[in-house]
Give the backbone structure.
Amino acid sequence: MLALALLSGCDQALPDDADARVRHGQVLMTRYQCGSCHVVPGVAQADGRVGPSLARFGRRSYIAGEVPNRPEALARWIAAPQSVVPGTPMPDMGVPDRDARDMAAYLLSLQ
Ligand code: HEC
């Protein structure tokens, strides 16, 4: 497990349970500066107004009004929004799948 964490290049312990994923996702939201475009509760200086607020996102039925809000779909959206809804104003940011999954876990924890 430790070797895997080191190999992955991530400076955090490898998230191996749901809570750790959520916490890691919260840290990543700051690192990827999602808050420059979104209000995100629990993330410092996340007060952007370019995109919609992500408050209580765990209660949302749809992503971008189009895709049912499920963990896999949300992770896909964060990794490559243009592939989910072509032409969406949210840019592809080159987020790796694993980081996208952890940020999806964080957003879905916002009730
Ligand atoms: C350059 C601005 C910008 C950045 C940076 C950005 N987003 Fe977005 N995001 C948007 C816009 C604009 C939308 C609305 C897209 C639409 O409705 O088609 C959006 C939509 C979303 C949605 C769906 C919101 C809803 O109401 O359905 C989620 C979830 C989301 N972004 C997560 C993220 C995450 C996580 C990050 C960081 C990895 C991020 N965004 C970074 C601009 C941005």
